[in-house]
Amino acid sequence: MKIITLTTDFGSENWFVGTMKGVIAKIAPQARVIDLNHGVSHFDVAEAAFSLVSSYNYFPHDTIHVVVVDPGVGTARRPVIACGDRFCFIAPDNGVLSFVAGREKHMRWFHADRPEYFLPHLSDTFHGRDIFAPLAAHLARGTDPVKMGSLITDPAMLEGAEFEETRSVSGAIKGRIMYIDCFGNLITNISSSAVDNRIEVEVSPLRPTVAGILPSYDSVPVGEAVVVCGSSGFLEVAVNQGSAQKEFNCKKGDEIFVYVTASKKG
Amino acid sequence: MKIITLTTDFGSENWFVGTMKGVIAKIAPQARVIDLNHGVSHFDVAEAAFSLVSSYNYFPHDTIHVVVVDPGVGTARRPVIACGDRFCFIAPDNGVLSFVAGREKHMRWFHADRPEYFLPHLSDTFHGRDIFAPLAAHLARGTDPVKMGSLITDPAMLEGAEFEETRSVSGAIKGRIMYIDCFGNLITNISSSAVDNRIEVEVSPLRPTVAGILPSYDSVPVGEAVVVCGSSGFLEVAVNQGSAQKEFNCKKGDEIFVYVTASKKG
Amino acid sequence: MKIITLTTDFGSENWFVGTMKGVIAKIAPQARVIDLNHGVSHFDVAEAAFSLVSSYNYFPHDTIHVVVVDPGVGTARRPVIACGDRFCFIAPDNGVLSFVAGREKHMRWFHADRPEYFLPHLSDTFHGRDIFAPLAAHLARGTDPVKMGSLITDPAMLEGAEFEETRSVSGAIKGRIMYIDCFGNLITNISSSAVDNRIEVEVSPLRPTVAGILPSYDSVPVGEAVVVCGSSGFLEVAVNQGSAQKEFNCKKGDEIFVYVTASKKG
């Protein structure tokens, strides 16, 4: 039976996620549910999108990834099912699937508009339980997504700063802090591959500047800053056994500049 | 094999819940354990009771719901097993099952007083591991609860403010804030059905007042307050994409008054 | 199929633990993963060691316990597999298995140095996903640990204050606060068995002093301090329905003295 993962901004201090699992167990008793991340910042669609793209690919093919970060719960925003060659995704149609949409092939998108695949009684405030969990369970049972909704070609995608591509700006690569993890590491949207041949970098406007991409956190002494190729494929600014967030007093969304000060073959 | 849910005030920052799962896996390897809520405020029996009643009914029949919020751990308070037509419940006999007891039919109550269904060595401080987890596991294996304890007719029930019914007070319905969720939404004990035909309400003493029950959080602009029919069947005061708790500076237990200012057919 | 438990300092607010479960599900679909504790203080190897020794023994034999608290991630520190008569353990070789090593018999230690049991692409910063999860999954599938690494005889062990044994100091037993749980209970490293025949004790330097080991938290009135035999087999200082941490304003690592003021037969 299939795996269903759950990514939400519900936290782990209440009965919301547990109740979704009850609903799934009732419809698809054999489905296996894995908590992927319930610590997304409230209503932060871009953070949820980044969390998903950093993790979804490590699951077995045919996994159903459910994301419920849904500032528009109860409005007319559509619930969508997106199925590609390897995975299916279920989420509100608010752009939270933007990053995976750019990576997965042959995605077909459906507006899940058939109430027979929801719970019989819909609340206005908890569609994770009433809509998204039942959709995932029916999909896990093998229901064809074609039966569960209408094909659409205009899924919502993130735009603007939230989804900004990194850009070259007078010799520098300009990016953003996409996520700050529980260790205080600053995870950027600058692909590690973009800097493969640049052995010296400066990350600005962080002061003091951090020079060089090094192999691991403790390539520098305890308490010092370092730039590493992070585990999700993006540059990451860290402090060895410390918190880069505290050290540099920065926050999610802040701009980051990487300057090439020397190339490998320079 | 049956599902066992766990509701505790243990939090998710230690080995307590994980250890209970180890105990269950040892006795009932096929049982499936689902975390329902480990974020109940410490020792808050009424909050645990409210969490349970808001969620238990979404699970498959025959689910065993275990609640370990137990200020009296190590004292003579009884461990109880309560089995109704659809679910079984296991908890300390401190009133935490009051709300579900009012909803489930044909509940038989047992004082679980047979040490052969506990762990061989009992600590004085961790009955979740030593008593409640083993009881749940034996029940999941199919042991008849009649064998596991003595029938009782006097289970403890919550009384007073904690379990106060809503009341009509000079045209208003008086209730209480039962729970504040992670979004800062204020969940009351006023049943949504009690106000079905009252299309304009004022919630007091919240200032500024909130007028009208609306279909969803974003029936009002971002940052404004709204009253909705919450997902557990109770009125809920929210701020669209904000925190009603911060906006109104209120806390769990505070009184809430709903005034009927106009009726649907008025 | 076997059980794999996970103990980490990753917290529950991100996708790190979920991703490890994806990796395990891909390699060993039948393995059952149980979260043992993800709230270990960041980089705190001694706390993780204490958490593990307090819980591992409650799981079925053949359980695979994985610990990823790894300040040296990305360095040359070895990943180790340790198999005893009853359990296997997988962890970075940093002493985190010190406490269980002292209790389990016939432990064989392996340096897991065969990359074919890792993920194909190794990051420098997330060995929980790239090394430890795959090792656990292969072990759960039944791979012989002999094939997965080279036998070693010098696993790292904690030393000094972190692993200090309790000591008799002029009539007192000197120990340390090893852990403060979510209720504010102070869990020491003084074995309950060491004080079995001492019916009156003083715990110092806590002021006011706490006298006597009592059966349960509420052997004293609400709000008062009490010493109990904790559930992990160690003395524990608590405040009935309150927080000993706040009451005594102390922190992990603080020294504790237990004075024998009268013996049972004195």
Task: Summarize the SSE layout with pairings.
The structure is a homotrimer of 266-residue chains.
Chain A: E1 3-8, H1 16-27, E2 32-37, H2 45-53, E3 64-68, E4 79-83, E5 88-92, H3 98-101, E6 108-111, H4 127-140, H5 145-148, E7 150-152, E8 167-169, E9 172-180, E10 186-191, E11 198-204, E12 225-229, E13 234-239, H6 244-248, E14 255-263
Helix pairs in contact in A: 1-4
For the structure shown, list the relevant keywords.
homotrimer, 266 residues, alpha+beta, Rossmann fold, 6 helices, 18% helix
Mind explaining what this structure looks like?
Chains A, B, C: It comes from Candidatus Auribacter fodinae. Chains A, B, C: Keywords: S-adenosyl-L-methionine. Chains A, B, C: It holds the Pfam family SAM_HAT_N. 3 copies of one chain form a homotrimer. Chain A is elongated. Chain A folds into 2 domains: 158 residues, 3-Layer(aba) Sandwich (Rossmann fold); 100 residues, Beta Barrel (Elongation Factor Tu (Ef-tu), domain 3), CATH 2.40.30. With 266 residues, chain A is α+β, with helices and mostly antiparallel strands. In chain A, helix 1 packs parallel to helix 4. Helix content of chain A is 18%, strand content 30%. The N and C termini of chain A lie far apart (54 Å). Chain A is built from 6 helices and 14 strands. The mean pLDDT of chain A is 88. Chain A has a 7-stranded mixed β-sheet, with helices on both faces. In chain A, strands 8, 9, 10, 11, 12, 13 and 14 form a 7-stranded antiparallel β-sheet that branches. The interface between A and B is medium-sized, with 29 and 34 residues.
